[in-house]
Specification:
Helices cover 40% and strands 20% of the residues. It has 15 helices and 12 strands. Helix 4 (83-98) crosses helix 5 and helix 11 packs antiparallel against helix 12 (324-338). The radius of gyration is 24 Å and the shape is globular. The model is unreliable at 1-7 (pLDDT under 50). It binds a DNA duplex (18 and 18 nucleotides) through helix 8, helix 10 and strand 9.
Length: 436
DNA sequence: TCTGGGGTCCTAGGACCC
DNA sequence: TCTGGGGTCCTAGGACCC
């Protein structure tokens, strides 16, 4: 648990507005004319909405097919997701924000927290406005900024800035009176850390707003919401419990999973998919210089159809490794244990866990790493080439070699579906924006 | 017909030990 | 007849986030 110490500094949260939709609009301003939504991996559901799409009442996570008809009629614009573009735009936004303060925590692809010196509300406001202006000017992305004594309150301030349509995208929430006024208008599910389940639990106890929650008894809250829930309440009262985390830190688990565009029954296709997931996860593992001693494989039918079946297996790896061929072999072995013929699978994935540092593993006599220098060198070369050229340049044969659009490979159906994707404007020379 | 993907932390309960 | 209790570790699942 992070220590609770008096912290006179203030927290600011910068959050990009409608981030994925905004990224698309930077390179294609015409998209602003009609509601725009960005779709998930298989164009399955809606994961981002422009302001106009939000006004139409389109919800986050809704299945895309509900809106296909209206898209055909031209009322709504639908784009496949382009994560290469979003990740690059994110980096540019974060770089711009970092130029204002060294005390910055990159919280998610579109959000960053800052530590600010205490100052008058006017000064805080003008600083935030200046940040906002510069990010817009340098990247084209609109951001909202909320400033408050704790992270949880900064979240609420940010939300306030976003919701105020006549506002300037900035909200400073520092004095106790305006904080308590704001909490009266804040619904439980709009509190950072209080989700649908905990909201329900609280409502059953006749608590409906953030203001009512902060008035509740400590012991009672602790019992009902657990430690993190209690910390959230302290934060709402103005006591910082969640500190700024500047170092991102290594991941404790790495998952690579996909829903398939079509149902898959064939074991060999599943094997290819699982191999590709293992290879992908292994690459991320090497990127953070870790080796894994735990691997899990899972396959699942569609959760929207009876009978739902989901199976997984867990494998302890005696000699921790990040060597792709070994991890592929283990994953395939795991798959063979859980696969049942006659079942049609809609989703599969590989999870790696129980990490240790790849260099430290060598000196550990009890669990020696199986990554010899030769293997390490081979992986290094592959990673280097794949990082330099458009992916996938080098792959393992187990991942499947037939990538032709008419083939039966697990990926081709996906490629056919994800047709409406924007170019990699900022990361591929071929896709540079053309001004005509 | 069509419903994402990738994370973190906490907790309750079981197994086991003394 | 009387049949403990506390500590630790592990794991599955729940809850949250974007």
């Amino acid at each position: 648990m992070s220590s609770i110490r008096p912290n006179k500094n203030l927290f600011a949260l910068a959050d990009c507005n409608n981030f994925f939709a905004s990224c698309e609009m930077v390179f294609n301003p015409g998209l602003d004319k009609k509601p725009l939504v960005v779709l998930s991996n298989n164009d399955g559901c809606i994961i981002a909405r422009s302001q106009k799409a939000k006004q139409l009442g389109i919800k986050m996570g809704e299945p895309a097919y509900l809106y296909r008809e209206r898209a055909k009629k031209g009322e709504i614009q639908m784009l496949s997701s382009n994560f290469t573009l979003y990740a690059d735009m994110s980096q540019r936004v974060m770089q711009t924000l970092s130029s204002f303060s060294p005390d910055i925590e990159l919280y998610s692809i579109d959000e960053a927290f800052f530590l600010l010196e205490p100052s008058s509300d006017e000064v805080l406001r003008s600083r935030a406005l200046e940040m906002r202006r510069k990010v817009k000017q340098w990247t084209g992305i609109p951001v909202s900024i909320g400033t408050a004594p704790t992270k949880t309150l900064a979240k609420i301030a940010n939300e306030t800035a976003k919701k105020d349509k006549n506002g300037d995208g900035v909200c400073v929430l520092t004095d106790p009176v305006s904080i308590s006024e704001r909490l009266k208008k804040t619904a439980l599910e709009d509190i950072w850390g209080i989700g649908a389940r905990l909201s329900e639990r609280l409502k059953r106890k006749r608590i409906y707003t953030a203001a009512q929650l902060v008035e509740a008894d400590d012991v009672w809250i602790r019992k009902l919401l657990g430690v993190t829930g209690f910390q959230t309440v302290l934060e709402l009262r103005g006591t910082p419990c969640f500190q700024l985390c500047e170092e991102p830190g290594k991941k404790k688990s790495i998952v690579c999973s996909r829903s398939f565009a079509t149902r898959i029954e064939d074991l060999s296709l599943l094997q290819e998919a699982i191999a590709a997931f293992a290879a992908n996860a292994a690459e991320k593992l090497r990127e953070q210089e870790s080796v894994a001693s735990f691997l899990s494989v899972f396959i699942a039918a569609s959760p929207f159809q009876e009978p739902y079946e989901s199976r997984s297996c867990h494998i302890q790896i005696p000699n921790p490794t990040s060597y792709t061929p070994e991890l592929i072999a283990l994953a395939k072995e795991g798959l063979s244990q859980i696969y049942r013929s006659g079942c049609s699978y809609k989703k599969a994935g590989v999870l790696l866990g129980d990490f240790s540092d790849s260099d430290a593993a060598q000196t550990d006599l009890i669990t020696p790493s199986s990554d010899t220098d030769k293997k390490k060198e081979a992986m290094k070369v592959i990673d280097k080439i794949n990082a330099r050229y458009d992916k996938p340049s080098l792959r393992f044969a187990a991942e499947g070699v037939d990538q032709h659009p008419t083939s039966r490979s697990w990926k081709s159906a996906e490629a056919n579906i994800r047709a409406n994707v924007s170019p990699k404007f900022t990361t591929s020379w071929h896709d540079l924006l053309k001004i005509t």
